[in-house]
Amino acid sequence: MQESVANPAAGSRTGISSQPGGERRKLLAIGWRGRDWPAAWLLILPVLVLFSITVIYPLIDTIRLSFFDIKGLGKPKYVGIGNYVKLFTDPAFRNTLATTAIFTLGTTVVSVGLGWFIAMLCAFAPRQTLPFRVMIFAAFGISEAVAGYMWIGILRPDSGGLLNAVIGIFHPGFAQPWLGDPRTALGAIIVTASWGAVGLPLMLCFAAVQAIPKSLFEAAYIDGASHGQVMRNIMMPLSMPGVRVSIFINLLGALRAFDIIFIMTGGGPVRSTETVGYFMYRESMTQFKLGYGAAATVILLVAVLVISIPAIIQRTAGAR
Amino acid sequence: MTFGNGAGIARGTLIVGAALAGMMTALPAWAQATGELVILQWLGGTEAEMWQKLEADFVAKNPGVTVRELVVTGQGDMRGPMRTALLGGEKVDVIINTWPAFRAELVDAGLLRPIDDFWTSANLDAALDPSWKSLGATDGVTYGVTYTYGDRSAIWYKKAHLEKAGVEPPKTWEEFIASLDNLKAAGFAAPIAMPAKYWAHGEWFETMLLRTGGVEAAAKLATHEIPWTDEVVKTTLKKYAELLKAGCCGTPEQMFAGDWDYAADQIFTADASNYLLMGMWVNSRARNDYKLEEGVDYSIFQFPSMGLGHDDTSSVDAKEVLVTSNGANPAAADAFLAYMTSKEAADIQASYGYASPSKNADTSLLGPVQQVATAAVAQSKVQFVLGDLLPGDLVDEYRVQLQKFLQDPSDATIDAITQAIEAKAQEVY
């Protein structure tokens, strides 16, 4: 039965559906009877209802809201695409696009790059490095709010902050307000977010390396390859599936980033760390301009779809 | 016998009952409230604890009433969670509010019930001066009963710091600027703790605006009757720049790094800074969190006179209780408003360090710092905190532009930021 449900797409590709009722005939040929359809719909109905309530309805309602001007508790006023036009002429929103791009690329490069590199190193001694992998992955399980507060302590502007205290060993009296300086605040948040995110790429890339057949390594070493050559010519190319998944997950997470920014800087100083996710919150929840916030949400949704659809197609290509 | 006695008791009971019934029909509905009273609660910490006591006392005096708090939680501006609750269909009888702009929003949404008739029937004039009544009004209609207020033009300091620097609490602007040098010479690199992470850097601007243009100018700015490019705003910023150029507050990055609580820590625990212009809630933090003795370890002085003709002005904040138009228990809501002006309510507030505007309040119960603040407000022409009067969109822009001013307090920046705020104001009003 599972085969038959998964196969319609394949059927259409093989031309069966090009004939009138071809797909249905194929299903009947493998035992799918007409009277099974009601039962099939009945079984799928709860999922459809749940999906409609939790995904479809909020999505449609958000898009609907984006066409209204809503201020506070006042009555909504239809403005068509006015909110979208205003968004792209709003310097604050344009600034968030740039900040989001930097934050997304920064956290993805740092966390995936670092996770992948550590995974490569760990792959040479899987047993011995287990405690390190567990510790690094544990950071992934810490909520961003908790991590944010922890890093606020590390990045305190006075010499009581851990980072300033460590630097202060070499430069007495050093006191850099990492989160207060518009030049360093975004970088500090990228480091914080990457610290929490590095565990997942590490595990995915490590798993990808572990899936490489042992015979490849044995053959390489018999042929006299060094560790570096094995890493460069076998582990690096064959771990790419793990890297791709990591990049995909990190991009999506970073695009939607909110918690860590809310906790650490509130989008400041001077809006230097305000991402689209935070802008959305500020407009919707602080200003309570629900329509304007919804328009920003739709823009973010489009960005997420632009990234995720090709990735989903690519990742599920093998299922065809 | 028993019956006879019983009959006698029954007859007595009937007479007393009839008399009570007669009295009850003569009493207004709010004086015989029963049922559940729902309060939209967003306050936290010791203030929330104080509210629990107020509610318990109210219930003790109105045994037919039970109180349920609908608690909303959040960080920063609590209007968001409150709006979410109200838009989500929650029905409450009483709303605690501190933003006049939010009250206007609730009025526009038809969520508030006017209380002018109740004010007369409950004779609230006997408890609150007309100025407090007008403070709770929107477009000439009264909605709020103010239950507490605070001085927002008071500068907090630790006595030991000033003693160490040989500084007396400054009375004039010149003395204040001069004291910065003395404090720096005593080892305090940034005498003013300027918390500019979110909103608190606006406090200095707002009091200086009052001292420069008076309450009239501040009120006009709040309603956009004068533009943000007005000379009074620019003069205020130039005075603010004097402070920054005197090296009051460290680097802009240091100012941006902390909120008001971090700034308070810098004075009261880190002994790194000396002055903090902030609301009266610092009193509660100093007493309860830092375990300092009010009036002994720390005190306040009113913002120094600037000699621009408006030194009799102060910025104040206030909290009020509002009653809703869709609440299920308007009688209990009205009874609660009346209770909040009572001596008992004022005493409970005083025990937590909060001043009540009620004439029933015993000011001798207030601590020495709170008494200084109360006296200063009583002698001042007051204006509500500007930031709480501005529409949300505008206040956000105003605070960000002030951050830019802190980065570069030059005349060119003053022109640029006043134009930017004015552009936003044009869009909002």
Task: Write up what this structure looks like.
The complex is a heterodimer of chains A (320) and B (429). Chain A is mainly alpha-helical and 320 residues long. Chain A has helices spanning 2-6, 8-14, 22-29, 36-65, 82-89, 91-123, 130-141, 144-154, 162-170, 185-197, 199-210, 214-222, 227-238, 240-255, 259-264, 276-286, 290-315, and strands at residues 68-69, 77-78. A two-stranded antiparallel ribbon of chain A has the order 1-2. In chain A, helix 4 (36-65) packs across helix 17 and helix 6 packs across helix 10. Chain A starts with a helix and ends in a 5-residue tail after the last helix. The relative contact order of chain A is 0.12. The model of chain A is unreliable at 1-18 (pLDDT under 50). With 429 residues, chain B is α/β, with parallel strands linked by helices. Helix content of chain B is 51%, strand content 13%. Chain B is built from 19 helices and 11 strands. Chain B has helices at residues 2-26, 45-61, 79-87, 100-108, 116-121, 130-135, 159-165, 173-185, 202-222, 231-245, 252-256, 260-268, 281-289, 330-339, 343-351, 368-378, 386-389, 392-407, 411-428; strands at residues 35-41, 65-71, 94-97, 137-138, 141-142, 144-151, 154-158, 276-277, 298-302, 313-323, 381-384. In chain B, the strands form 3 sheets. In chain B, strands 1, 2, 3, 6, 10 and 11 form a 6-stranded mixed beta sheet that branches. The N and C termini of chain B lie far apart (80 Å). The model of chain B is unreliable at 1-10 (pLDDT under 50). Classes of the chains: A mainly alpha (320), B alpha/beta (429). The A-B interface holds A 72-74, 157-158, 160, 175-182, 262, 265-266, 268-271, 282, 285-289 and B 75-77, 79-81, 83-84, 86-87, 105-106, 108-109, 111, 196-198, 251-258, 266, 270, 272, 392-393, 396, 400, 403-404, 407.
- Give the N-to-C terminal Cα separation of chain A: 17 Å
Low-pLDDT regions of chain A: 1-18
Radius of gyration of chain B: 24 Å
Written as H for each helix and E for each strand, in order along the chain, the element string of chain A is: HHHHEEHHHHHHHHHHHHH
